[in-house]
Amino acid sequence: EAIDEARGAFERHQWAAAPLCAVEAPAGDTDPVPNPARPRDEVGQVTWATPETVAAAADAARPWDATPEERAQVLNRIADLYEENYGELFAILHREAGKSLLDAVAEVREAVDFLRYYGARTAGDPPVGVFACISPWNFPLAIFTGQIAAALATGNAVLSKPAEQTPLIAHRAAQLMHEAGVPATALQLLPGAGEVGGALTSNPAVSGVAFTGSTETAQIIHKSMAKNLAPGAPLIAETGGLNAMIVDSTALPEQAVAAICESAFQSAGQRCSALRCLYVQEDIADSFLEMLTGAMDAMRIGRPWDVSTDVGPVIDAEAKAGIASHIDEAEADGRLLKTTDTPDTGHFVAPTLIRVNGIADIEREVFGPVLHVATFAADGIDRTIDAINAKGYGLTFGLMTRIDDRVQHVSERMKVGNVYVNRNQIGAIVGSQPFGGEGLSGTGPKAGGPDYLDRFRVHPAPQ
Ligand code: ADP
């Protein structure tokens, strides 16, 4: 009830986002911010930064001149402010990012955890200098906050560019950071798209970049940094995945089905950790898939702010069109096993199941509630693992089994950042389960883990 009341107060509220710069700076156009569940409903307005805004902000950026104790206090104060303002943060997450209540609660929790975890580790070597933090729309509060909290905990100045789809939550969060005591010169916000990101990663005042987004963008940033920034400027990148799960014939089917639905369809599949390719042992496949499609039928697609919603909208019309064309292709090939109708308005995609022969058949990461399924023979586990490894991504992997030796064997052979056994396959638990991948999935180290902050510091050469 308290949550409902807090969210309800913001039902028709309009927010505004704009560059937050430490100096007078030119800004660009203003546009409406749409609601992905109800595209005609404007959630607010955004005034964009331009490359000129970036130049002015970069000139004004100054590493945070405060003691480690002061930085710790301020980071914890930000966490307090997030907790005090949860109703407003949930409402923005529902209306701007299409997050369900469960997702919004988890997201604010994760953001707070990052602030407190890094806030407890502020002492150490000096900062790198000025960090560009470039964040995605799928965790527009948690990843945005995690990157900034790490850079600030170590005393860097931050130039933050949130994703163009989610400027409002970023702006509100940045306001709370300033209110908590982060100086204007240590945190500046630059809402914009790729052009603003490009201006950041080529500005010589920038001495490091933290990035989460697509593998392709990470490669562009890597090149831009090599050309324009000082040699050795760190790039910390968290990128895509093509994550698999193996269910063998000893797994508990009810447990596996519940975990698969969460891993593949929660957040409408818009998580880099999400399950994309399920391998089921062939002798149980028919009955298992029947149970899985039954569970998919029971999932409710709907408005993010309704408590009964399991699957909200995807982020925008472009995302929906890309996912729909993937589903249409599968249907044309006779590989579509299950999908359902969705509400007419809003960018909804139903939980969908597509048959493949193996992960090699999946051309790209489809960022939506689409699960591919293949079977494997009782003696085919190692071939399956090799096929998954050969794909080159290495973010998450799930295993459902009750054979103890198999857990060890598979975990050792699988080249991934995070292995999940007999549970759902879902991102970070800050502190106890740091998150990050290998290969095409990222540079490491893992966010929310013990070595992450080291990359935001300069380590003196040994004498
Ligand atoms: P996604 O598939 O999550 O949208 P992107 O890699 O396109 O992945 O976006 C992640 C972040 O990277 C966003 O903030 C986006 O605006 C930013 N971005 C996109 N292109 C560039 C670029 N050329 N340079 C820097 N940042 C970029």
Protein described:
- The active site is at 238, 272.
- The chain is an alpha/beta fold.
- The protein contains 14 helices and 17 strands.
- The chain has helices at residues 2-8, 51-60, 68-84, 86-97, 101-119, 142-153, 167-180, 194-201, 215-228, 253-265, 285-297, 317-332, 381-390, 404-413; strands at 15-17, 30-35, 38-47, 130-134, 157-161, 187-189, 208-212, 235-238, 243-247, 275-281, 336-338, 352-355, 370-376, 393-394, 396-400, 418-421, 438-439.
- It has a seven-stranded mixed beta sheet with strand order 11-12-13-10-9-15-16, sandwiched between helices. A five-stranded parallel beta sheet has the order 6-5-4-7-8, with helices on both faces. A three-stranded mixed beta sheet has the order 1-3-2, with helices on one face.
- Strand 5 (157-161), helix 7 (167-180) and strand 6 (187-189) form a beta-alpha-beta unit.
- The protein binds adenosine-5'-diphosphate.
- Adenosine-5'-diphosphate is lined by residues 134-136, 161, 163-164, 193-194, 197-198, 201, 213-214, 217, 220-221.
